[in-house]
Amino acid sequence: MTPDPGPPGRGLTPSERPTVPLTKEPGPSGHAGPEPDTMAQERGKGRRTHRPWSARRLPAALVAAVILVAAVAALADVVAVRAGRPSAAWRRHLTDALATRPVDDLWMVTGAAAAGAAGLWLIALALTPGLRHWLPLRSTADCPRLLASLNRDGAAGLLRDAALRVPGVGAARVRVRRHRVKARADVRFRDPRQVKDDLTAVLGEERDRLALAAPPRIVVRVRRRTG
Amino acid sequence: MIPRSVLNRTLLALAGLVLLGGGLLILFAGFDLYRRHGLGPPAGWPLTAPDDVLLGSADRARWSSQGWWWPAVIAALAVVALLALWWLLTQLNRRRPGALPVGGTPPREGVELRDSALSDAIETEAGALPEVRHAAVRITGRPAHPRTRVGLTLTAHGAPGATLGALCEGPLRTAHRSTGLDMPTEVRLKVARHPPHRTE
């Protein structure tokens, strides 16, 4: 299952490049062999070129904190009851509700739907790579163990500056998504069609300078605005 | 040792499955889907009809009359709380190697490099690259398997491809040559915020 899934030939060449040149593996490769988690992850799960996988620290911390609070609260109350004190109000409310409301009660159905949705969300978090704001960069042949990414806002800023260098462009807005770059520009002078061609060329050049592993498509829209 | 990403993702998936399963169980019984679709849930299935309740009085009486019930509940809750605490703390601390063995393979006895010294060196050299405004370097991982994380902020004229090449040729190559460590490196590039401007 690992090596063959690659119907879109788009991302494959760069992902295979680092494995091919074993140029810089001098003698001391003894302990460097069985190591890399990220590389293994890239090979195993990441059929999208060099996408780094998030560690999911924040969701994990939130879920752990919720479980911790619930468990400690329940524990404290159970122990208090065992020690002869009356149980807390929240626990009596909760057990009453759970013991009297049938499962087709509105509250129960709403709660169950919310729990199911949260469950789906957590499963999605567990299975997807995340880090959607980071665009993976092509790895350089010299540093095969380098995994680099550029954030989308940064890419958008560089592309916008490139767009503003085209003569005739008064203002430009660039939105970078993972597979498409949308640029909208106001044309102050010159023929809009010519400006659009120039913009496409300049943005394509700038995109190549970004060295993205999966270069996004560029869509340019121009609007004439004088005044 | 399991990498933190794998651990987190496994536990998140587990929590998600529990929530989803519980929710579906209630929804199936609440909308009476078993009867409507002629599904016979197996014997002992917890919730089957819309007028079932989660905590039946029979269940409560059966369990809480057992002598071992409350001690077992307390033990289970304590274990859950401890595991959750451990999981939470795993997110907070970032493992750092402390000292790195250097001097070739096998590493020479008594020769060690502080991780902060190495990261400072890489940081200084990376920060001096053209078009790099700010560099932050951290060494993570275990001493046997250190990894480098580099965060770079480029100036508005930066070219990520070229900068990456320079980083690879310069600071990272120096670090590799001087320590003998071939560390996996993760680089995050940002571009300094700036108002729209046309240069050149």
Termini gap of chain A = 59 Å
Strand content of chain A: 5-15%
Instruction: Calculate the mean pLDDT score of chain B and round it.
Output: 86
Main sheet properties of chain B: 3 strands, mixed
Helix segment tally of chain B: 6
Secondary-structure class of chain B:
alpha+beta
> Low-confidence parts of chain A lasting 5 or more residues at pLDDT below 50?
1-48
Give the mean pLDDT of chain A. 79
Globally, the shape of chain A reads: elongated
**Cα-to-Cα separation, first versus last residue of chain B:** 52 Å
Largest interface: A-B, 90 and 87 residues
Q: Which secondary-structure class do the elements of chain A indicate?
A: alpha+beta
Cα radius of gyration of chain B in angstroms: 28 Å
What's the β-strand tally of chain A?
5
Q: How many individual helices of chain A? A: 7
Helix content of chain B: 40-55%
InterPro entries (chain A): DUF6286
Region (Disordered) (chain A): 1-52
Organism (chain A): Streptomyces eurythermus
Protein name (chain A): DUF6286 domain-containing protein
Word description of this protein:
The complex is a heterodimer of chains A (227) and B (200). Chain A has 227 residues and is of the alpha+beta class. Chain A has helices at residues 12-16, 37-44, 57-82, 89-100, 106-127, 152-164, 192-210; strands at 134-136, 146-151, 169-176, 180-187, 217-224. In chain A, the strands form 2 sheets. Chain A has a 3-stranded mixed beta sheet. In chain A, helix 6 packs across helix 7. The N and C termini of chain A lie far apart (59 Å). By secondary structure, chain B is an alpha+beta fold. Chain B has helices spanning 4-30, 33-36, 57-64, 69-92, 115-127, 160-179; strands spanning 99-101, 112-114, 132-142, 145-154, 185-191. A 3-stranded mixed beta sheet of chain B has the order 3-4-5, with helices on one face. In chain B, strands 1-2 form a two-stranded antiparallel sheet. The longest helix of chain B has 27 residues, at 4-30. The two termini of chain B are 52 Å apart. The model of chain B has no long low-confidence stretch (mean pLDDT 86). At the A-B interface, helix 2, helix 3, helix 4, helix 5 and strand 2 of A face helix 1, helix 4, strand 4, helix 6 and strand 5 of B. Chain A: The chain crosses the membrane at residues 58-81, 106-128. Chain A: It comes from Streptomyces eurythermus.
